[in-house]
Design a protein that fits this description.
Elements: E1 4-10, H1 23-37, E2 42-46, H2 67-77, E3 88-94, E4 97-100, E5 103-106, H3 116-119, E6 121-122, H4 123-130, E7 137-143, E8 146-147, E9 165-168, E10 176-179, E11 186-187, H5 188-201, H6 208-225, E12 234-236, E13 245-247, E14 253-255, E15 264-270, E16 277-283, E17 289-294, E18 300-305, E19 309-314, E20 319-324, E21 330-335, E22 341-346, E23 350-355, E24 360-366, E25 371-376, E26 382-387, E27 392-396, E28 401-406, E29 413-418, E30 424-429, E31 433-438, E32 443-449, E33 456-461, E34 467-472, E35 477-481, E36 489-491, E37 498-503, E38 509-514, E39 519-523, E40 531-536, E41 543-548, E42 554-559, E43 563-568, H7 582-586, H8 592-608, H9 615-618, H10 622-632, H11 637-644, H12 648-666, H13 675-686
Helix pairs in contact: 1-5, 5-6, 10-11
Length: 687
């Protein structure tokens, strides 16, 4: 039977901040709703004068919402899972919030603006603890940044946190207002939220999308009625298709397909018993698919065709959510590196920027040609666009204005790619040229040529930033170094034009989409002896776009046959030419190499426990061990993230702390790239 738990916090009285009138009342009403109406199994309640929590064992827990009490409870209660995956956990906070040093904080009753990091609860820390409850369904409701007048300071952002459905009372640049009228005497947001939840119990089942619309509409109406400024609730989700989740009367979250998404998926699998090789097809576009692009976290795939929508596919459910772009036929799409924004551009000579957390159109940039290609810089500060007018434009997203124009091509720009360090740009054009640009100076530093009259269709940077690949109508793919105008290698075994090229994350493979309906996988580990290892067939039209997931495990291809095919298992390290037979794959379900690697890793760690590196005193957590194991194998953070079901951003943050601690302990710099070499050296010295 599904269990439902909640943690409710409401703070009126602040020691160092302006006190509030109805935050505590909001929390009282939410607590009463969860316990008495929704019949939750357990509700933990913290407010100005709430009673102690009596645990099953140990001393009573003080519930005055001070920093110390809240930190203690989050640490003790969420030390280990106490719910099952199908259960539900709700968190509600009513009080002050603040944003400091690019992090969001909830302000306990004794918090101090002069020492936020040491007296406030980081939402990153909070969500990390909440996820430990064991439930897959975690809902975080924040009625923070509350004010009776104009707010001072900076509010929390409307981010989506991994594994959490986040419901916010207002946008970051707004306040959450309290209604003093005797019939309400609550915060406007919580008043409306309770109405919505009560409607749930009566059988009006909102999904997240509908709840979002209801909150915005009703809060706007009630604030207008009582003379309050604009306040816009927002919902942040980890995955776009979470917006189709339904809150049932039992408060269990289930999937409901969004009605306007007319999509389906067909699955064709081989060797299903060990899933080493399989593929499925995503169907939903009405016209030829032009571009496919993985989100940086690998959860979603974006696609566009010659129509006014962009489809966002959830790769687990294989359902899609549509972005409607008005009359603009979309030719190009790009995710920001931080997974917060999506840029779309096309026929109308306009670039639209979308917020993927609140799922809203934010603003537009006016271009001067049909937008054919776009790319964000790794720091998310710049967006580069290429157009049919032969110009490349650099946009400063912080001020939402054009920074510069790069001129040098004489034909339409067909493809752009930015180096991993964000310093260089490569462009491919109908003028048969591939140009390399210095983004800081805006100058062209090198030009490469495809000697044909049809032009360059696609360009790509390797992940180490040292190689460029270009595909052309001349039936060749050329691989270039940064210092020479002559290609390092020419792949010329194609029978038709190449429309798309992309490097695998480890730069060992190059994937090409061709006009003869194929996806080809080339082993380029030896640049002088590139070898075709997979010739993937299945599309019935030319392959216009290819993309690889951040973990390097999944390949996507878009085609003029209006479909997207997802390929699994074809980017493995063995680089074999054909998928093995079922009998062969049964012999390879475990990898002796992996097992021996793991044994070596464990033996080194064990030997170092009481010698050079005192691991026990460092007290490694599971996430930290996973990072070390990934570093030992030379894996990227994206791969480690996929293995641990964490986001790359989260892993990079805790990895940075881990490397700093190990560096201090060992007396020399330790990072992901040198970890194994350094540790094995120490091991050999002490063996």
């Amino acid at each position: 039977m599904t269990k439902n738990y909640a943690l409710v916090i409401g703070i009126n009285q602040y020691t160092n901040l302006q006190s509030l009138r109805f935050a505590k009342r909001d929390a009282e009403l939410m607590q009463a709703f969860f316990k008495q109406e929704a019949r939750f199994d357990q509700v933990f309640y913290f407010s100005d004068n709430s009673p102690e929590i009596l645990p099953y064992q140990g001393s009573p827990i003080q519930t005055r919402p001070t920093y110390g009490n809240l930190r203690y409870f989050l640490r003790a209660q969420f030390d280990r899972p106490f719910l099952s995956a199908d259960d539900n956990f709700w968190f509600f906070f009513s009080g002050h919030g603040n944003r400091y040093a690019d992090r969001d904080y909830l302000m306990p009753s004794d918090s101090d603006l002069g020492s936020i990091e040491h007296t406030a609860i980081s939402i990153n820390y909070l969500t990390e603890r909440l996820r430990r409850c064991g439930a897959n369904n975690v809902v975080m409701v924040l009625d923070a940044c509350r004010s009776e007048g104009r707010r001072s300071g900076v509010g929390i952002s409307n981010e989506g946190y991994r594994g959490i459905i986040s419901i916010y009372a207002c946008r970051p640049n707004e306040s959450s207002y309290e209604i003093e009228h005797k019939d309400i005497q609550q915060g406007a947001f919580t008043y409306v939220l309770l109405q919505a939840l009560r409607n749930q119990l009566k059988g009006s089942h909102f999904n997240i999308e509908q709840l979002d619309e209801y909150l915005r509409r009703q809060v706007k109406e009630i604030n207008s009625k009582y003379g309050k400024p604009v306040q816009t609730p927002a919902i942040g989700v980890e995955s776009i298709t979470q917006r189709s989740l339904v809150l049932l009367s039992q408060f269990k979250l289930i999937n409901q397909k969004i009605p306007k998404a007319d999509t389906s998926a067909q699955c064709e699998q081989s060797n299903l018993e060990n899933r080493q090789y399989f593929t499925y097809t995503l169907i939903g576009h009405q016209n030829a698919v032009r571009v496919v692009n993985f989100s940086p976290d690998g959860i979603n795939l974006a696609s566009c065709s010659n129509e006014e929508i962009v489809k966002i596919w959830d790769l687990k459910t294989r359902q899609s959510f549509d972005i409607e772009a008005g009359s603009n036929y979309i030719y190009s799409i790009a995710f920001s590196a931080n997974n917060r924004f999506l840029a779309t551009g096309g026929l109308e000579e306009v670039i639209d920027i979308w917020d993927l957390q609140n799922w809203e159109h934010i603003y537009s940039l006016k271009d001067s040609g049909v937008v054919t290609s776009m790319s964000f810089t790794p720091d998310n500060r710049l967006l580069i666009s290429g157009c049919t007018d032969s110009k490349i434009r650099v946009w400063n997203l912080e001020i939402r204005e054009r920074k510069s124009i790069l001129s040098g091509h004489s034909g339409a720009i067909q493809s752009l790619a930015i180096s991993p360090d964000g310093k260089l740009l490569v462009s491919g054009s109908d003028d048969n040229k591939v140009k390399l640009w210095n983004l800081e100076t805006g100058k062209s530093v090198r030009t490469f040529f495809h000697k044909n009259k049809f032009g360059v269709n696609s360009v790509a940077f390797s992940h180490d930033g040292q190689l460029i690949a270009s595909g052309s109508h001349d039936k060749t793919v050329k691989i270039w170094g940064l210092e020479s105008s002559q290609p390092l290698s020419i792949l010329d075994k194609f029978t038709d034009a190449i429309h798309a090229v992309v490097f695998s994350p480890n730069d060992q493979l190059l994937i090409c989409g061709t006009n003869d309906k194929k996806v080809q996988v080339w082993n380029i580990s030896n640049i002088n002896k590139a070898k075709l290892v997979h010739d993937l067939e299945g599309h019935t039209g030319c392959v216009s776009s290819v993309a690889i997931s951040p973990d390097g495990e999944t390949l996507a291809s878009g085609s003029s046959d209006r479909t997207i095919r997802i390929w699994k298992g074809y980017l493995s390290q063995d680089f074999g030419g054909k998928p093995p037979t079922a009998s062969q794959t049964k012999l390879n379900t475990s990898s002796p190499n992996t097992e021996s690697e793991r044994q070596r890793f464990e033996s080194v760690i064990k030997a170092l426990n009481n010698s050079v590196l005192p691991w026990k005193r460092i007290d490694l957590k599971e996430d930290q061990k996973a990072i070390l194991w990934g570093a030992w194998r030379g894996k990227t953070y994206a791969v480690i993230a996929s293995e641990t079901n964490h986001s790359s951003t989260y892993l990079r943050r805790i990895a940075q702390e881990l490397w700093e601690r190990l560096s201090a302990r060992l007396g020399e710099r330790v990072d992901k790239d040198n970890f194994r070499k350094l540790i094995e050296k120490r091991f050999d010295e002490t063996s």
